[in-house]
Structures are given as C-alpha cells and as structure tokens.
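Thread: "does anyone have the structure for this chain?"

Original post by V.I.:
We have the sequence but no experimental structure in hand. Need at least a predicted one for the grant figures.
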Amino acid sequence: MTVLSLVLLVAVSLVATVLGVYYSLTKPVPIPGGDYSEGIIGQPMYVNPVLEAGNEADADLSRLIYSSLFKYGTDGKIVPDLAESYEVSNDQLTYTVHLRKNVKWHDGEAFSSDDVLFTIQAIQDPAFKSPLRQNWQGVGMEQVDDSTVKFVLPAPYVFFLNNLTVGIIPKHVWETVAPTNFSLAEYNLKPVGTGPFEYSDFQKDSGGMILSYKLTSNPDYFGDKPYLGTMTFQFYPDEDSMIEDYNNKKILATNSLSPEKLNDVKSKRSANIISASLPRYFAVFFNQQKSKVLSDKDVRRALATATNRKDIVDKIFGGQGREIFSPIPPGTFGATDDVKKFDFNPEAAKKILDDAGWKSGNDGFRAKNGQALQFTLVTTDWPQLVDTANILKSQWETVGAKINIDSESIGDVQQNFLRPREYEAFLFGQSWPTAEPDPYSFWHSSQTKDPGLNLALYSNPDVDKVLEKLRTETNEGKRVDLYKKFQQSVTDDIPAIFLYSPNYLAVVNKKVGGINITSLVSSDEKFADAAKWYVNTKRVRK
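Reply from O.Q.:
Generated one for you, tokens below.
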C-alpha cells in the first residue's frame, strides 16, 4: 500500500510538472465558436433603428444586427462603419459620404446608397413615427451613385456625424411595408441587417412574451469576423430572476445591474464586474417660474451648499458613481473642473439663509416676510430616485427648508408635470448619447417648452450665444473653451443642483474573454467590439 501511494505521488508530481512546463511555454488564444448568453431585463419590441429609442433590449440587439454609416469605437470616438470615407464642404453644409463596396445584407442582397436614403427618409417622414425625426428636420439628401450619398444641412452643425451613427435598414425588405404598418411588421422582431451578428430565432411563452432571442455570427460581415458562434439573450421581468439564472449558470452575463444587486451575485471569483462611466447625470432642476422661494438665488445657493453628494453616491450606488457639479460629467469631452462647486457645508448653508433674512421658526423651518421656505420635489417612482429624494429631504431640512416629495410613475410624470412644466423642483436624469455633447436642447432658452428638454427653464442670453457658437465651431480647442464658459455660467446661476453620474454595472463570467470596457457613450455601445469577444480558446506556443 505504501509503495502504491508512493507511485501515485510520483505520477501526480510528474503530470503536474509536465503541465507546468506546458502552460509556461504556451498561451491561450481565441478560436471561433461557442455561445455567449446574457440576461436582459425587459422585452424586445422594435429591433429596428428607425423605431427603437429608450428600450435597452431593442438597442442592444440593434447594435449587434445593424451597421451604421459611422459608429463609436471603444474609445468613444466616431469611426467609419458602412462609410469608407467622407468629406465636408468648406461652408460646413454638405457632407459627402463614400460607402463600402461589396457589403451584403444578412439575406445575401447587396447594400447600396438606396438603403441609406430609404432609412433617412423613413426617419424624416412623420408617417413612420420615428423618435429620431427631430434630429433630421431640414436635412436634405442626394444620391450621387450606388456608393455615394450627400447630406445637405440647413446650417453648419459640427455634431452631425453623431446623427450618422443610426443603423441602416434594407430598402428591399421594408419598401413594401406601408408606414401605417411599419411598427407592426414582423421584421421588427425578425430583422435583416449588415452587422456582425444576424437574427436566428426567438422563443415565446404561452402568453406571447419573448423568453430568448438567438443571434448567429455573420460569415459575410465586412469587418473583423466574430469569434463567437452564437449570442443568446434571455429576458427577465426583474433583476432578481436574472441574477438567479446567472448564479445557477444558465447565463454567462447580466445586462445592467443596480449597485445593491451586486451583493446577490455568487461566485464573484469566477466573474468580472464591469463598471463603466456613462455620459449621463442626475440633478434637481428648479422651476423658478413656479416657485417664488426657489427664485431666490440665496436659497438655491444654500441648498447647493447643504447637499452631500458623496453620501448619496455611497448609500445608493455603493460608491459606483461619481459626484458631479456641472452639466457635463467628468470624462466627457469638454468637461472642466473649473466650476463653482458649492462644497458640502451645512453650517455655511445656514449662514447664507440667515444673512438673506430666512429666519428659523420654533418648528425648525425657515420663513421670510411670511413666506415659508417650502417646496415640493417631484420625481419618478424609480427606487433610486425616491431614495435620492429622501436623502435630499433630510439634508435640506437640516438647514431649515421644508421639503415635500411627490413620486409618480414615469407616465404620470411626463404627462402631468414634465410636459406642462408643472413642478417647483424636479429630480431627474439627462444623458448625452454622443461622444461629444451638444447641450443646446437641454440648456438653450428656446428649449424651455415641451418637446424641449430645458427642465430648469433656464434663460441666459450669454449662454444662448455660447451654445449657438458651439454648434458651428469647427476648431476643437475653441470648442473646449466654449464648453468651459457654458459650464461656468450655468454653475454660477444655479438653475439646478447637479448630483451624480452612476456607473454602468454588469457581471460577466470569466469564461468570456476579449471584453475591454471602461467608458461608454451609451449602454448598448458595450457591444462596440463584440466581434472580439470569445469563449473558446486553444493554447499555442508563446
């Protein structure tokens, strides 16, 4: 028995030595094949770039299935996709785009400029009800030949290439579909694109809900051929059910997660946590036209000074986010640290109110000339925003401001508060879905009424001029200076209190390689380099 044990020990040692030498002399490299599986909360509805807007499931699938004239690279910069090259006229009004040749749709048909014109015309036509229509108003198009198109702008607009990151749909598939049936067509769930992955099939339950959606690699893709053989997406009603399937190894990755749910993920040693910055922020926007109290700049300054952003980021996001002090988050092009920050100091906030004549009563709340320091903070019923509102209420009431919170469904907020601008203070988020932000629609005085997005009803003629100039300035260095002036003016005026920019969070099993994500333009851009992802490997000599 002793001799047998010794022989086994020697054999095991020999195998370990051989394996050690083998692994020291070789390295793993990706090879084609294998299935990547991911969970997504929600349901796909319109896997169609002309229609999808705000639905994460649609955006993720579209990003993989469709190509666009230009796309965002992994560094967030715009690079050609279906475009091969482009030129801009001296007056900055005409963009001539030369298309790649020999590109095929997933059904084998040839891609051409006909498809580009058809897509943009569908977006511009109100009958198709595209949410992107506003971005394309006034833009003219000309088909030069099968591989060349021209876009003619009504005025110079340096951010126009961002518009050209929309996915292109095939004319030969969609031209027979009437605009009234566009949103009802089966191609919205059985799409035909030119991207690295193509639609395969989907599975529904007895109630018609889509359970899973399968893509296969596109053998004719014009770019780098994907390593993954298939990508399968599972759909869930909530984070808990998605995490349960991840923990039970039914999926390899989750889509976006809230920070508190990371603690529910098991086997973290076998997982990579993706934590990436996004160009979005959350803020409290003050409607000074509806609140006499908030029209007092000293009140807004005191509230800003009484705001502990770090406390919010730590408590709600577990530190997975950034404190922000201006309308352009850190890491976004044009962001500057040289702004008025109003660092957290409750005693200083109390002194500001004391000096401004807001006196504290027996109940601890302040008033001035019979006017109570009181207002209602409106937000949606999303848990993170409700929690943020409650923390702000506690912080601000400490310095003597009485805060009422009104949280409603997103539909009610949009219909009853946002569109008619019927709120005193509004806690909400805004995002820049582009590599370089265009703050015009969020802060120009012409955008104070719906459908404009100037939620603070902010009006400053000097800022208007800066925003207008920003849209036409072709010199990058001069644009940086304009961004700085814009941020400094807004933070000096305090039309809003900027709070935080939460990170995009997801969990991916370490079996999946090739993922390199640190920052994103939008959540679906995590698939910008999906062709490089892999699950299968072989070892080769170093």
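V.I.: this helps a lot. The chain has three domains: 67-171, 195-276+504-541, 280-502.
O.Q.: and DSSP finds 14 helices and 24 strands in the chain.
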